[in-house]
Design brief:
The radius of gyration is 18 Å and the shape is globular. It has helices at 10-24, 35-44, 58-63, 89-97, 123-132, 159-168, 178-186, 203-207, 226-235, 238-246, and strands at residues 2-5, 29-33, 49-52, 64-79, 86-87, 114-118, 153-156, 172-177, 191-193, 195-196, 214-222, 250-251. α1 packs antiparallel against α10. 36% of the residues lie in helices and 24% in strands. α5 (123-132) links the parallel β6 and β7. The strands form two sheets. Strands 1, 2, 3, 4, 6, 7, 8, 9, 11 and 12 form a ten-stranded mixed β-sheet that branches. Strands 5-10 form a two-stranded parallel ribbon. It has ten helices and twelve strands. By secondary structure, it is α/β, with parallel strands linked by helices.
Length: 256
């Protein structure tokens, strides 16, 4: 079975692949590419399952079946040596508009901020656009330059791209999957997660939606696809949900 889409969900599928192969006889081929690419691949028949780390639009729901397998948050990360520990929504907007350009403007060191963004076809970019009202510079839906993210950004693809850049650049800021950030911190990556609007993303604040930017983790497949329905049942089973929590995401039955 071929899987493609959001790199946020990719670790879950890679973890569960041997279990699914053992129980069902299917070998899973898994690649990233972003949420939009996963949708395109399912619609074209290239992939059996797409991975989408955002809510589906009404048009997407009309043409595809989907299953929510867990929850994640969009986290803001900086190098662990950065003295700044949190940002507000207003500061975030001003940082990515290029209005706040130095860390000293928000209580940090007197050093220029390096902006890490996301490519326009990424689910995380869609989430940030909705949260801030700012748009990727190449987003054709918005022509207003005052509502665009600064062009002085580095566009990352996968979560790991952004995490590695922030981990190697002392003055960078980026936005990534909270689960991915936690996993790499556990592996020794020198980054830290900032509080946002005074709230840290964790199991309790994500599941309760107290953290401001919570998102669904979805798998998608063509309408009435038996392979898709079978895998959806498996990922919602105790074994499947254990894979979600093992990879630092929030299972849909959190706390039970």
């Amino acid at each position: 079975m071929a899987f493609s889409g959001a790199t946020t969900i990719q670790p879950i599928m890679e973890y569960i692949a041997p279990y699914y192969a053992n129980e069902n006889g299917y070998t899973l081929s898994i690649e990233g590419g972003g949420s939009d690419q996963g949708i395109k691949n399912v619609l074209s028949g290239k992939s059996d399952i797409g991975m989408v780390n955002r809510p589906l639009s009404s048009e997407e729901k009309a043409s595809l079946d989907y299953t929510t397998i867990g929850y994640d948050a969009t986290a803001f990360i900086v190098h662990k040596s950065n003295p700044v520990n949190g940002i507000t929504r207003g500061q975030l907007i001003d940082i990515y508009k290029g209005k706040i350009t130095n860390w000293k403007q928000i209580g940090g060191n007197d050093r220029p901020i390096i902006l890490i963004s996301k490519k326009p076809d990424r689910g995380t970019m869609r989430i940030i656009e909705e949260e801030t009202g700012l748009f990727h510079p190449s987003n054709p839906k918005n022509k207003d330059e005052t509502k665009k993210i600064s062009r002085n950004t580095w566009d990352s693809g996968s979560n790991n791209d952004a995490i590695v850049w922030v981990g190697g650049l002392l003055d960078a800021i980026g936005f990534v999957s909270s689960g991915s950030a936690v996993s790499t911190i556990q592996d020794g990556m020198p980054i830290k997660i900032l509080s946002y609007e005074g709230v840290m993303p964790n199991e309790q604040t994500i599941f309760s939606h107290r953290y401001p930017i919570v998102r669904e983790l979805n798998i998608i497949y063509t309408k009435n696809n038996p392979k898709g329905k079978k895998f959806a049942s498996f990922i919602l089973s105790p074994t499947g949900q254990q894979a979600v929590s093992h990879t630092n995401y929030i299972r849909i039955d959190h706390g039970k």
